[in-house]
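Hey, resending since the last one bounced:
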Amino acid sequence: MTLYFEDFTPGRVFPLGSRVLSADDIVAFAAQWDPQPIHLDAEAAEAGPFDGLIASGWQTACVWMRLYVDAVLNHAAVLAAPGVEEIRWLAPVRPGMRLHGRTTILESWVSESAAGRGTMRLRGELTDDDGQSVMTLLARGHARLREEARG
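The structure tokens again:
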């Protein structure tokens, strides 16, 4: 089933599934994209501000994005995303932590300037097993209207 703009109604929550990052996952990502000692070296990270190895915030954002793509975007008539308005890293992500994703549609409106599409504003979130938020983001996306697809 394809999701169209009309399916992204305010208040709708999309559960995204979960993902666990291993120490190897964290170090491999950091080596390529965010080579800080708190992400690369468990021993050095012990002396850091988080008392141990933690995932890069950018890796955490990538986990949410992968979950969102798999659960929602790959099943939607999405046209583009004009950007992320805000991202917050609220708690460190440690090796072995299970991250649970969800996306909540905050508002949506039909475009006045681009026929056949609407825009939605969403809140993405990753939580740990205790329900504590480790990352949140606010973003926008464009999707094709269902009637436009019938064309």
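The chain has a mean pLDDT of 95.

Sorry for the duplicate.
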